Amino acid sequence: MGTQEDERIVAQMGTREDEGLETRLLLPGEEGLPQIQQSPPFSLRCRCRQSLNLHRHSDIHVIAVVDPTVAAIFTSSSLSFCCVPSFPSIAVILLHRRRFPRFTLSAFPLILCLQDESGGLYTGDGSVDIKGQPVLKSNTGNWRACPFIFGFDCCERLAYYGIATNLVTYLTTKLHEGNVSAARNVTTWQGTCYLIPLIGAVLADAYWGRYWTISAFSTIYFFGMCTLTLSATVPAFKPAECVDSVCPSATTAQYAVFFSGLYLIALGTGGIKPCVIQFGADQFDDTDSKARVKKGSFFNWFYFFSNIGALVSSSLIVWIQDNAGWGLGFGIPALFMAIAIASFFSGTPLYRFQKPGGSPLTRVCQVLVASFRKSNSVVPADSNLLYETPDKTSVIIGSRKLEHTDELKCLDKAAIISDAENETGDFSNPWRLCTVTQVEELKILIRMFPILATGIVFSAVYAQMSTLFVEQGKMMDTTIGSFSVPAASLSTFDVISVIFWVPVYDRVLVPITRKFTGKGRGFSELQRMGVGLFISTLCMSAAALLEMKRLSIAKSQGLIHEDVPVPLSILWQIPQYFLLGAGEVFTFIGQKEFFYNQSPDAMRSLCSALSLLTNSLGNYLSSFILTVVTSITTKGGKAGWIPDNLNEGHLDYFFWLLAGLSFVNMVVYIFCAKMYKSRKSA
Length: 682
Prior knowledge:
Helix content: 55-70%
Number of strands: 9
Largest sheet: 3 strands, antiparallel
CATH class of the largest domain: Mainly Alpha
Shape: globular
Distance between the termini: 42 Å
Mean pLDDT: 79
GO molecular function: transmembrane transporter activity
Low-confidence stretches: 1-119
Main location: membrane
Keywords: Membrane, Transmembrane, Transmembrane helix
Number of domains: 4
CATH superfamily of the largest domain: MFS general substrate transporter like domains
Membrane topology: Multi-pass membrane protein
Order of helices and strands: HEEEEHEEEHHHHHHHHHHHHHEEHHHHH
CATH architecture of the largest domain: Up-down Bundle
GO biological process, one term: oligopeptide transport
Radius of gyration: 31 Å
CATH topology of the largest domain: Growth Hormone, Chain: A
């Protein structure tokens, strides 16, 4: 500021004649006061002797520039603050040196906390940097941090799908397993990949935080990729090739090495799954309305870049595996996993971090125990009589307070203040008394479960892409001119569909639907998921119709008892893959957004893991249905619906079964969605 303005400020600040003190404002960067460069809270470390003697002719040091509401906590007989006229939201803390004779500037914690939703310097959602310090909005988080997260997820998805997409082919051609056994092994492994996120979520929410959880499990992931590569490269670790249709089985040791690598990958990918997209969403300040809109787009583009990696896997990596060898085909994904880890760590200075809020499972148990102990108590009609801390923020680290709801009143008993607690004033035992926010956390989880359950059937449908869709494609004409297309590569069209639908949804459908719904994101999360469930029914119907056509050609060509492809182009599978991709954009992205926005603040990783649990249960459901169908349809020595020679079976019946389940599931979902009540912050 200029000299005249400085003089005006000094004049308005005046002098402290009652104590004989005269003050002058020194702003950061002026002579005598070093420029503040660190994030608060921190100590102002003066490097020159002169700066240690500010106001050498007065008894006051300039200590900090703060928000007046924060400055109030320093007001006492020893401290005072005054507003800067040019900046009404800024105040200056003044320290009387005569009352702190040994005080130095470097020992006093500075606070710079200029907060407001539109132009505040610091985030308002409690996010910090890697050192635990509050972070500036201007140089952290938001879209500037996203390229590193997108890069990590793109390369990680390339690594994952580089294994998953063609795994059933490796099991049947290299480990010499049958169709049903291979499909069951793949879906069981994929189910495990989506079950382990519960472990990663608890560690992230309770102990490590999302960043360190991603770091730890990514390392395990990489070791698993290396082990799997060795199992396909070292001769002693893989079975011998078939000789004249005689295929030696894999030994126990060979199976051990292969499945060790495979399930280390499951542990690694499962551990990071509930954290990566949540960590990305954490980069957007939840208290800023503009950032909330950007966060809605983030979920779409996160899935977009995920599928870029999947596109490379389902096309180039699958072709390498089928034509250049499995050692190279598994080694390239391992290399990309290393690149993913490097990308993630590169963005560390730009990231915003949410502190872990303690074990969410412990808090759930505390509510259940406390409500059981007070099962004979009567819930008061006035919810204000239930226990909640008077502070603005919740006692749960990283969580805002939640508004009381009238459902599940039996759980409210955990927040009833007993006569004994009133008399002693001891409210410190959460196993006897919980806050309303803690009770509402559990209520939210319970309300989410019906929505969660209806995602299982969709995941069972999705599992067919890497199992029976591939088996179906292998029994079709895979040649296009002189080029042979690996059956697993058709999943490329699922990825292309996603890459097509994400920008169409974000840039076309959202603006159009916004005009009719009045919602900033166009569709609500529940509406979006419902559309996806309807599309899944169409997908399985398309697959069933194609299989009916394929079997009719096999019959007309006399190929029923021949284990050979029928003269029907594999490109006819494109519609079912394209429909499945469209269903993903609506259902899976809708799920991710729903479970982030509706979950309690300190349970976001856990709720993300619960959404991934639907994928796990969907894969297990697919394995279960396969087992039951095979058991029933092969009685009496029959070939069954899904024999090793699909020309003798009725894979179309299995697809129609899944189409029927999808339709029933959609009807149930509509009912559950209408009953659902959104969470409300206090």
